[in-house]
Write a structure and sequence with these properties.
This protein has one helix and eight strands, in the order αββββββββ. With about 160 residues, it is mainly beta. The strands form two sheets. Strands 1, 4, 5, 6 and 7 form a five-stranded antiparallel β-sheet that branches. Strands 3-2-8 form a three-stranded antiparallel β-sheet, with no helix packed on it. It is elongated and about 50 Å long. It starts with a helix and ends in a 37-residue tail after the last strand.
Length: about 160
């Protein structure tokens, strides 16, 4: 009885370790090809935002990366509409695109190709100036503040 319980527990623990959730990210990095000019562009789209690429309006709805213990993968849910200057916008793509397999779920457009490169976190905003005086808490441990590492000097100096 005891070996069966231990085996069941080990299988349960290893199963939960393998079933880790994907990690959400804030920004989708895409590449687009304009087939007329043969120009490739790299651009970022924040989740929830829309970016214009040629006549395409690219909206990112979600972006996930695989956990570090899994095979590397980035997947983004995109909605892409063709919005020509003369005419009504038409949705040309709505679905998941995968960085490792762009052909699995590709945009089918006569002029443009768009594919996912990676999902990333939003770049940190400008660093706020350090607080001073009472607001900073005079008893804070100054030794724990981040410091710049010294630069290595070139040989001969």
């Amino acid at each position: 009885m005891r070996p069966a319980v231990v085996s069941a527990l080990l299988l349960g623990v290893s199963g939960t370790a393998l079933a880790q959730a994907d990690i959400p990210r804030d920004v989708v990095r895409l590449q687009g090809l304009d087939k007329v000019t043969a120009r490739v562009s790299t651009f970022d789209v924040e989740v929830g935002a829309t970016v214009r690429f040629g006549t395409l309006d690219v909206t990112a709805k979600a972006c996930f990366v695989a956990p570090p213990t899994a095979a590397p993968e980035s997947a983004a849910f995109l909605q892409i509409a063709d919005n020509p200057p003369t005419g009504e916008p038409t949705r040309v793509f709505s679905g998941w695109m995968f960085a490792s397999s762009p052909a699995v779920s590709a945009l089918d457009h006569a002029v443009y190709d768009v594919w996912v490169i990676e999902c990333l976190d939003r770049a940190p905003s400008a660093v706020e100036p350090p607080m001073t005086g009472e607001a900073a808490g005079e008893d804070d441990d100054a030794a724990l503040e981040p410091r710049a590492l010294p630069r290595r000097r070139p040989d001969g100096l």
